[in-house]
Amino acid sequence: MNTLDFKPFEFPGDNWLVDIYEKHSKLVDKYLEYEGQIESFDINTYEDQSLLKNYLEVRFIEELCEALDDRDNRDHFLEEMIDAFNFLIAAYYIYEIKPEQLSFKVNPSKGFDKDFLNVIVSTGMVCNCLKNRPWRHSQYLVDLLVFENRFLKLWEDFYSLLRNLNIDDKTIYEQWSLKYQVNLFRIETNY
Q1: In-domain check, residue 144
Q2: Theoretical Cys-Cys bridge with 163: which of 69, 106, 112, 150, CB 3.0 to 4.6 Å?
Q3: Is residue 77 part of a domain?
Q4: pLDDT by residue (tens digit) across 138-153?
């Protein structure tokens, strides 16, 4: 089962990200339940920081690197960028950032390599705010102002990367919808 087995959803126009968020949140809830994860999220606990770091440092970055590994194959590159998009949207959902909080500002490109590296660095800077470790007896509160500003900047950097690669909102939405249908099928059927 893959994206070729489905048809893209009709593009909803300016509300495309809200539509994605509403649909994708149901899928993320199923994944979290399947993985035995959170019932309520608290950024100041080690467990929930680990969950967020897993979505960002492991899943999001891994998909970005898969895209980078095959950047000369436009179709596969796009599929992996949308996989990365999925994990980033999931991280925003878990932390309860709403789509209305995300900027559609597109920063000027500094070239593919620099733009791509900028997204990876932004991810690291977000995760660097999450300092709790399992071996520490005292836990650290997250500086929410710094964390949230960095987290929102990560979206802006990633969205800018997509748009500077001539991946428009309609393409993001349609490619996301195909991957969403595949993932929903897989989780509902234990595929």
Answers
A1: yes
A2: 106
A3: yes
A4: 677 899 999 999 999 9
Residue 9 lies in a domain: no
Burial class (CB in 10 A: 0-12, 13-18, 19+), 67: buried
Q: How many structural domains are present in the chain?
A: 1
List of the chain residues with pLDDT < 50? none
Range of the domain at 164: 40-189
Report the candidate in 86, 65, 92, 87 with the shortest Cα–Cα distance to residue 151. Answer: 92
115 assigned to some structural domain = yes
Instruction: Using a cut of 0.90, tell me whether the model's pTM lies above it.
Output: yes
